[in-house]
Structure of TetR/AcrR family transcriptional regulator:
Amino acid sequence: MREPISDQILAAAGGLFYSEGIRAVGIDRIIEEAKVAKATLYRHFPSKDHLVAAYLQDRHERVVRSLQEALDATAAPRDQVRVIFERLYEKADSPEFRGCAFALAVAEHGDSERVVSVARTHKKAVSDIFRAIISKAELGPDQTAAHLSLLYEGALATVAVGRDPTAVLVARDCALSVFDAAIPHDRTS
């Protein structure tokens, strides 16, 4: 079955945006890669800004789905935190990994409210996932979840700059320490 044209365009644009950068990739390059006419691209995405936002929305949905799969892999909240970081390590341990697509997009295209809005929505969704884990563990969600989220985001940025995926494993260990420290002493004995 043939994929819809909009998905074909998004796949081509998304791959190029992530690997080469949003500003570096022109519409003509996307048209060539997607094998569509310019009119077809603009019928589906009225501007590059719309295309970038759609790429980020698609990526957001995939990342959230992946995080949900990590949550579904184990029931214990501490293990869920561990699995999230270990799956991030698997992604980061690739020569194609450039860091967080949302941070990259805002760095390049931050003058677009449409792009910034999708990026903010994504970051909130990731934070909400950590909040849900901490809430399930009955650990008082706000501060602990914020720490876990910051460790996750920091790992993404550190790997992007340092090109050392083991930074994610360090972040995982820190996250598990934060989780353990949040457990009330009367529950640990």
Summary: The mean pLDDT is 95.
